[in-house]
Specification:
Radius of gyration: 41 Å
Number of helices: 10
Pfam family, one: IRK
Number of strands: 14
Largest sheet: 5 strands, mixed
Keywords: Ion channel, Ion transport, Membrane, Phosphoprotein, Potassium, Potassium transport, Transmembrane, Transmembrane helix, Transport, Voltage-gated channel
GO molecular function: G-protein activated inward rectifier potassium channel activity
Low-confidence stretches: 1-33, 35-51, 382-390, 408-424
Order of helices and strands: HHHHHHEEEEEEEEEEEEEEHHHH
Catalytic activity: K(+)(in) = K(+)(out)
Family: Belongs to the inward rectifier-type potassium channel (TC 1.A.2.1) family. KCNJ6 subfamily.
Length: about 425
């Protein structure tokens, strides 16, 4: 019998950084990665060299483009039932709201009907000498109506519980307490859902593009934010994240790695007074993830900038968060934002028609690192001025030594004549 020959798998990780210690010297198996990690493998790892569309991590409207799958511990959602109900869509929330009240009314209506049936009140409906548990209760429908009147405290006065029914008194207490709990839970859930500040974020706008241009002699990444309402966001703050897959020096692949983008955290510029639209600026320096990215390299990068604006709603005091993102095709190199603020008669006016508009400006296409190297070279003669002077003196001495022999003879002759005249 012949054994099948071992063959190397076609999908083998390439590169020195992805070498692995394996027991078998014949085959190197590719590790099983999550779907997102497989889709976002770097170019030198993945064999698929075709250009693919960048998948957003956060959509332009601020919704996160992430779906949670294979969640086995679903009981965790029930442990926080209040948040679960608030997070449901409106149609499901209203359905649960109606069903909870209907079920409780039916449940207690059934109990009231059972009490009347067991006591024999149904057989003495027309008997004036009989004292029923609930007057004028002659069937399940009337028991159901009495349950609604009891829980909602309507009290029409036609059906009344008597003092000859202790079991009815106990049931009345239980339904009153449970009804109050159901009211507090469901009404509180609806109130929180109605007052959620998510809709407030709809009036917080971000520019459709981010721009890169020079500002105060430094290359900066900029985007614009604005508030459409007259009621302002209190304690507003802005932050930004760079979403980009990376590979460590040990060969570990980190999909959708998050890196902070400094938009003024150390200087306090990230805390905003958002009365009129503001341009948020990120200085591209050595600590910036864009330090080595030039204009030609930017379209080749697969990255996403997520911007997050947070603050308290002035009317309700609840925390509000608005999000947006920019991919490489939405970052314009060599552009600036068109001004939107003008001075009118006694007030400032914001023209939101120009909020997203940009105009082209003169901007070097080099990266910030290359610009810094050019600037350092330009400053080199100034910093070495003393050495330059010394070099100039050395060059003059060399020129004097290399002069022609005739000039030296003439000088020697002149010196000899002067010596003879002095002797005479």
């Amino acid at each position: 019998s012949t054994q099948p020959a071992l063959t190397e798998p076609s999908n083998v990780l390439e590169g020195d950084s992805m070498d692995q210690d394996v027991e078998s010297p014949v085959a190197i198996h590719q590790p099983k990665l999550p779907k997102q990690a497989r889709d976002d493998l770097p170019r030198h790892v993945s064999r698929d060299r075709t250009k693919r569309k960048i998948q957003r991590y956060v959509r332009k409207d601020g919704k996160c483009n992430v779906h949670h799958g294979n969640v086995r511990e679903t009981y965790r959602y029930l442990t926080d039932i209040f948040t679960t109900l608030v997070d449901l869509k409106w149609r499901f929330n209203l359905l649960i709201f109606v069903m909870v009240y209907t079920v409780t009314w039916l449940f207690f209506g059934m109990i009231w009907w059972l009490i009347a049936y067991i006591r024999g009140d149904m057989d003495h409906v027309e008997d004036p000498s009989w004292t029923p548990c609930v007057t004028n209760l002659n069937g399940f429908v009337s028991a159901f109506l009495f349950s609604i009147e009891t829980e909602t405290t309507i009290g029409y006065g036609y059906r009344v519980i008597t003092d000859k029914c202790p079991e009815g008194i106990v049931l009345l207490l239980i339904q009153s307490v449970l009804g109050s709990i159901v009211n507090a839970f469901m009404v509180g859930c609806m109130f929180v859902k109605i007052s959620q500040p998510k809709k407030r974020a709809e009036t917080l706008v971000f520019s459709t593009h981010a721009v890169i241009s020079m500002r105060d002699g430094k290359l900066c990444l900029m985007f614009r934010v604005g508030d459409l309402r007259n009621s302002h966001i209190v304690e507003a703050s802005i932050r930004a994240k760079l979403i980009k897959s990376k590979q460590t020096s040990e060969g570990e692949f980190i999909p959708l790695n998050q890196t902070d983008i400094n938009v003024g955290y150390y200087t306090g510029d990230d805390r905003l007074f958002l009365v009129s639209p503001l341009i948020i600026s990120h200085e591209i320096n050595q600590q910036s993830p864009f330090w080595e990215i030039s204009k030609a390299q930017l379209p080749k990068e697969e990255l996403e900038i997520v911007v997050i604006l947070e603050g308290m709603v002035e009317a309700t005091g609840m925390t509000c968060q608005a999000r947006s993102s920019y991919i490489t095709s939405e970052i314009l190199w060599g552009y600036r934002f068109t001004p939107v603020l003008t001075l009118e008669d006694g007030f400032y006016e914001v023209d939101y028609n120009s909020f997203h508009e940009t105009y082209e400006t003169s901007t070097p296409s080099l990266s910030a690192k290359e610009l810094a190297e050019l600037a350092s070279r330009a400053e080199l003669p100034l910093s070495w001025s003393v050495s330059s002077k010394l070099n100039q003196h050395a060059e003059l001495e060399t020129e004097e030594e290399e002069k022609s022999p005739e000039e030296q003879t003439e000088r020697n002759g002149d010196v000899a004549n002067l010596e003879n005249e002095s002797k005479v």
